Amino acid sequence: MTASKSSTAILLGILLAAAASPALAYTGEEFAKDAKVTLIQARAIALKAHPGKIVDEELEREKGGSGLRYSFDIRHGKATQEVGVDAKTGNVLENSLEGPNPD
Q1: What is the mean pLDDT of the chain?
Q2: Of 1.10.3210.10, 2.40.50.140, 3.40.50.2300, 3.10.450.40, which CATH number belongs to 23-97?
Q3: Where are the domains of the chain?
């Protein structure tokens, strides 16, 4: 197989794997026009603050910071961490273990 065909095969495999994985629920998309930080950027910030697998994400109006935040539930092992990222500044506003009654 040539390098070009090999690269194409790898890319196709990645795309198929991404399409097969379940989509995350993303609520609050109506607020995206007010955000200066994109969802992709906020995910990277959240995962840097707490590595793991994002199992839920939303964009919401909430007190603190600019009042607009991305909220991520990140699972690592059996624990789930809630990480909040300000949607206008990119600052991490919350990074805490999610309790037994998640909101």
Answers
A1: 82
A2: 3.10.450.40
A3: 23-97
pLDDT (0 to 100) of residue 10 = 62
- pTM summary value: 0.72
**Contacts by 23-30 with C-beta closer than 8 Å and gap 24+?**
24/54, 24/55, 24/56, 24/57, 25/56, 25/57, 25/58, 26/57, 26/58, 26/59, 27/58, 27/59, 27/60, 28/58, 28/59, 28/60, 29/59
How does pLDDT run across 46-70, given as a tens digit for each residue? 999 999 999 999 999 999 899 999 9
Residues of the chain with pLDDT under 50: 15-23
